[in-house]
């Protein structure tokens, strides 16, 4: 099974102590985002977890504890954008985050750290030229520390539209998207960085940009050294190319306070969740009341029957 850590919140930045405690305990309780009385028990062991995908804007708290992941395979989706604190209100300075990115890359290898420059939006301040300047600076700093950059254009869901109203965001048509994508591709190519898109319907192949998968079966196969055939995750958006995974995060818990975030949609719930956080608890930011229905999540290695067939074939050959 592939575990996502996490689309719903930044566990590496804010809850890494909790995560490593859960790893030691061997399980985590995940609250159903639509019904908090339904809880899944997800086992965390090398027999069932094939790979962790970490999503973060700042992996600094994990840098000194990576040896605790020695028994597991993993890679990072690491977001660095050009926005200031009027948009990403609680992120550290770009210089410090870039330093963290480079240190992490040296520790785990550049193929295991994917740079995300997303979501992209435009307004009177964050113009196309602004993005081009900053993207060039980032590419210059990250060249040799990653092979790939994932981009996407901001989707204004109802809750994000409300939260970003103060930014006076300009609606991007296909022409604008193509202009931005083309220029970013030109810049990235100069720095030996491949660009792929995330959940975008627009075809940008004319600029050498493929539609990507953040939870990517090809990268996973390479990291675990085992060719796997995995199905698309039907729980994600239609345009999402990610394969199936289990997310162990919780909505309304991310403390970056980014205005465009879809995972934080209620300020009161966010503040309440932060107060409930206990690094020693089996849940991330939720206090069990005792009336929850806890179900053990069925988890099986993605190697599945293919590994069993290989083992059987090996045993037959040895018996000859």
TrEMBL record:
It comes from the Bacteria. This is DUF1848 domain-containing protein.
